[in-house]
Structures are given as structure tokens and as C-alpha cells.
Amino acid sequence: MSVQVELVTKLYGKQKALDEVSFIVNPGEIVGLLGPNGAGKSTLMKIITGFLHPEEGKVLINGLIVGFNDPEIKQRIGYLPENNPLYTDLYVAEYLEYVAGIYHLKNIGTRVSEMIGLTGLETEKHKKISALSKGYRQRVGIAQALIHDPSVLILDEPTSGLDPSQRVEIRQLIKNVSRNKTVMLSTHILQEAEAICDRIMIINQGKIVASDTPGNIKSLSINKLQNILVEFSEPVDKVKLLEIQYITDIQQLSGTTFLISGGETDLRPVLFRFAVDNHLTLLTLNKQESSLENVFLQMTR
């Protein structure tokens, strides 16, 4: 089931939280939404799920317009909000039974048992939600988002506040449940988006500034600079290095080690020739691969 966002604009007073945002999430795709605080991620997710309405534009879930076909659409969407609002005085199984009742599901007991098994809550199902760790509360939140078997799953910061081991577990859980669903998630953890997403969208100041696979996103660069880490056997004058053609910037990390930037011409042969001409031995000569973090910083600067 596809998610189609068409020219969505959202205002808070005079501030544009979203500015004519358009994209499509294809059936079966896992799309990660990245952006700094205040970029519009949560606002966009609330509009997709029908909890907020845009000033302009529209959202379609498999051709149905959100806001006009809400009862039918809510049956097709599972939503985990950023703050994961749970009824903490209820027991885990009791809470999931309550959510299943809201969706008028048949065989509620069977479906709750399935969700408890799928999300790894077997040992916690007889506990009150208030007694659960943050990681298990996130599992309960994902279970309630999945209990009516939606085709579209929207997860807002699903691993926020978790420790590294909990993040790995929730990440694997999302992978497992996404096999037959369209998934859109927001995150501040770039490695997480790279690990589980088919496509990454970067949003900044209410606009989508990049949208592609993690590999292609990493290859993007606004200034097209390459970085070379080079270490010589003896100290080298930085001014002398700056005289080399194609080098545009140098960070001296020590007397013998430099991070050298340049354009698209490969600097490694140039630096090798420099070392030979100056009777130096090269101890290190590595091209630094572009990272998702570097591209993210460039796109949201």
C-alpha cells in the first residue's frame, strides 16, 4: 500500500513547519525520515496519520485521501507517536486487548497472543506497563500499532532514549514486521537509518532536500570535495603542501599527519609524487569515504 504526499504545507502561526512537501513511499518500502530538531518530521507524520490537517496539499493512502476517508484509513495505518502514550496502569496483555477492542477485532485473545509473541513480550505480559523498561514500553507501542494488521506503519523516533542493545533489538523487530508492510520511520540515529531503510529522505526547514538510497545519499556532496588522510615519515611544511595543484584545504593533525581536501581529481597520485620529489616516505595515504553524517550536516547546515 502506497503513501502519497502532494504539496503539503503546514503553518504554526506565521511559521511554515512544512513547505510544499511531496513524495511517494512505495508498497513494501522502508523509508527513513532524517532531519534536525524542528525540521518538520513529527508534523509530517501526524499529517500522514490524520492527527493534523495541512493548510494546503493532501495525503493519499492507497488512493484514499486522509481527512476524508479517515475511518477506513485508520484501519490501514499503524502509528507509534514519538512520546509513545500508553495507559501505564494497565497490564501489557490488558492494554493490547483494549486497543484490539477499539478496532473491533474478532478473536481478540488470539491476536493479542500473536502480538506478544511477535514483539518479544512473553515474559512481560503479566506486568503493569508502569513496571516496564523503556525498551519494553517501545515494544508495547509497536504491538499496539500492529495489532489491527495495518498495511502502513508510521514510527516516530521508535528507538529514542534506548540503550545500544535495546536499539538493536527494536531495529530487528522493525525489520521483521516490515516484510509485508510499507514503513516510514523518523530517527536521529543515522546508523539506524542506514542499517534498516531502503530509502532515506532528509528534511530541513520544512522541505525535503534529499531522497535516495543510503548508498546514493552518502555519495552526495554539495562541494564535491574529497578528503585524504596522509602521514609522512618526517614533518612537512603546511605552506609547501598548499602549493600543490588541486589541494584546497589542509588540516594539520600533527607534525607529520594531515587531512587534505581537494576537488574531484584524485589527490593520492599527486601526494605520492610530492613525497618522492621531497625524499619522504608515505606512512599513510587513505581516501576518506563520505559518510551519511557528513552529507546530513551539509544538507541541513
Write a compact overview of the structure shown.
With 301 residues, this protein is an alpha/beta fold.
Structural notes for this entry:
By secondary structure, the chain is of the alpha/beta class. It has eleven helices and 14 strands. The protein folds into two domains: 3-213, P-loop containing nucleotide triphosphate hydrolases (Rossmann fold, 3-Layer(aba) Sandwich), CATH 3.40.50; 226-299, Alpha-Beta Plaits (2-Layer Sandwich), CATH 3.30.70. The chain has helices at 41-48, 70-74, 92-102, 108-118, 134-146, 164-177, 190-196, 214-219, 238-242, 268-277, 292-299, and strands spanning 3-12, 15-25, 30-34, 56-61, 64-65, 77-80, 152-156, 182-186, 199-204, 207-212, 226-232, 247-252, 257-262, 282-288. The strands form three sheets. A six-stranded mixed β-sheet has the order 6-7-8-3-9-10, sandwiched between helices. It has a four-stranded antiparallel β-sheet with strand order 2-1-4-5, covered by helices on one side. Strands 12-13-11-14 form a four-stranded antiparallel β-sheet. The longest helix is centred in the middle third of the chain and has 14 residues, at 164-177. The model has no long low-confidence stretch (mean pLDDT 88).
